[in-house]
Amino acid sequence: MTRGPTLPAHRPPHLPTPLDAFNTAPDDEVGALLLHCLRSLRWSRRLADHRPYPDVESLLAAADEAAYDLSPADLAEALAGESLPPVPDDTYSAAHTALSAANAAYEARFGHVFVIYLGDTPPEESLDRVLEGIRSRLTNDPEEERVIAAEELRRLASGRLLALLRGAGQCSSAAPPRGATSHKQPAPGK
To answer: How much of the chain, in percent, has pLDDT values that exceed 70?
Structure first.
């Protein structure tokens, strides 16, 4: 039996990806999105100015590099933009009280909000991890804590940016993706 001619392989048209949209969006839109990931004008401008990025890994590497280069003033600006995500409704009031006291002590000692990247911490363990983190970091000297806070901000920004590029919506300090959080003032307890 003879076969007819072979047809060329079917190639679907290129569908735009979130990275394509990021690379081609107007500067003001990209700047606003990036400021939701990390509230540093210098960081967001640097990432926006170096577009287009060939792949997500290149963008994340550039985000990390830009975060490492933040000056103390840039870091203070970014920390000032952090806020507390919603505390789970089922959190008991004693936990709210403990978190409030720990946050107050941290802010009094270091002059800025507490930030921590929770990675793969299960949601039910997040509050304990945050409380443990605040308590252990309260023993740091201010310079040591500045370095740790800068690293946590870098990790938060990368996590938020990755969530944005995965289509999870805008990266936001008000509603970070799972694993990314900052803590300022807890919501009222039950």
So the answer is: 77
What CA–CA distances, in Å, run from 107 to 62, 95, 175, 178, 185? 30, 18, 21, 24, 10
Residues in the chain: 190
Omega before residue 86 within 30° of 0, cis: no
Q: Does domain 18-183 have CATH number 1.20.1730.10?
A: no
Residue 187 has pLDDT above 50, yes or no: no
pLDDT at residue 46 tops 80: yes
Are 35 and 44 in contact by the 8 Å Cβ rule? The answer is yes
Please determine, for residue 87, whether its predicted confidence score (pLDDT) is greater than 80.
no
Which has the closest alpha carbon to 98: 127, 78, 121, 125? 127
Q: What is the pLDDT of residues 140-156, one digit of tens each?
A: 999 999 999 999 999 99
148 burial via Cβ count (<10 Å: 0-12, 13-18, 19+): middle
Cβ count near 104 (within 10 Å): 11
pTM over cut 0.90 = no
- In DSSP terms, 182 is beta-bridged to 115
Quote the tokens at residue 75: 């870091």
Is residue 45 exposed (0-12), middle (13-18) or buried (19+ Cβ within 10 Å)? middle
